[in-house]
Amino acid sequence: MPDAAHQPVDMSGLATESHQPKSALDAEAVRAAYRRWANIYDTVFGGISAFGRRRAVDAVNNLRGDRVLEVGVGTGLALPHYRADKIITGIDLSEAMLAKARERVAREALGNVAALHEMDAEATDFADDSFDIAVAMFVASVVPNPRRLLAELKRVVRPGGHVLFVNHFLATGGVRLLCERAMARASHSLGWHPDFALEALLTESDIRKAKITPVPPLGLFTLVTLQCDDET
Ligand SMILES: C[S@@+](CC[C@H](N)C(=O)[O-])C[C@H]1O[C@@H](n2cnc3c(N)ncnc32)[C@H](O)[C@@H]1O
Q1: What CATH architecture is 16-227?
Q2: Mutational test site, ligand 1, from 93, 165, 223, max ligand atoms within 8 Å of CB
Q3: CA angle at residue 53 from 73 to 228, to 5 degrees?
Q4: d(CA 230, ligand 1 centre) in Å
Q5: What is the pLDDT of residues 194-224, one digit of tens each?
Q6: What would the pLDDT profile of 5-16 be if each residue is shown by its tens digit?
């Protein structure tokens, strides 16, 4: 299986090597992992991640603008929680996960979900400035090139709009750091990177501009809200 970390991509301006997770997931590895996860994802991961997801959706609901792109929409766990006036477009690489999201939209008659597309969040088909808000929940630590994901979301969000991430980021010390480094060896089976650092996603300048808030109760997840510059 090709490893995205070893493909000849121009990484200049992207995250420095020390911030890269040790084991990158390419698109095929993501699809394979989430084909396995799709049927059990909500049971295994839905509960523990619910606080982070709800916090991100609340933040989206409180921002101006109704055109929302949810990238890595997965099984659609967040979809029922958007305010009815937010018009949601969801994308995901995994058809197996999208199938679950489509079932949810039908079952819960979610009329504000405009579309669910199989699409790569790092290289979407959307025109510039198509959305007011883009949100990625537990996705940044899965994609091969998080900085490319961020650049793509900035492109499709209008100037002055917002890009939000909720994710688990690598601890900066202590036992948690040791555990996360050890767990990183299982990235391919897990389908995400336990050793994903905030700096792999955000530049220093983004970090200065972003609102970065730990999500209670345990602070295991962090919500990042970035407002797009007028010139982006
Ligand atoms: C950990 S799951 C999170 C799902 C959902 N956001 C949630 O909160 O439950 C990560 C999702 O991101 C998707 N994904 C990973 N890489 C992607 C990419 N490059 N483009 C679009 N979706 C991607 C996976 O297929 C998977 O559904």
Answers
A1: 3-Layer(aba) Sandwich (3.40)
A2: 93
A3: 75
A4: 28
A5: 678 899 999 999 999 999 999 987 778 999 9
A6: 323 223 333 444
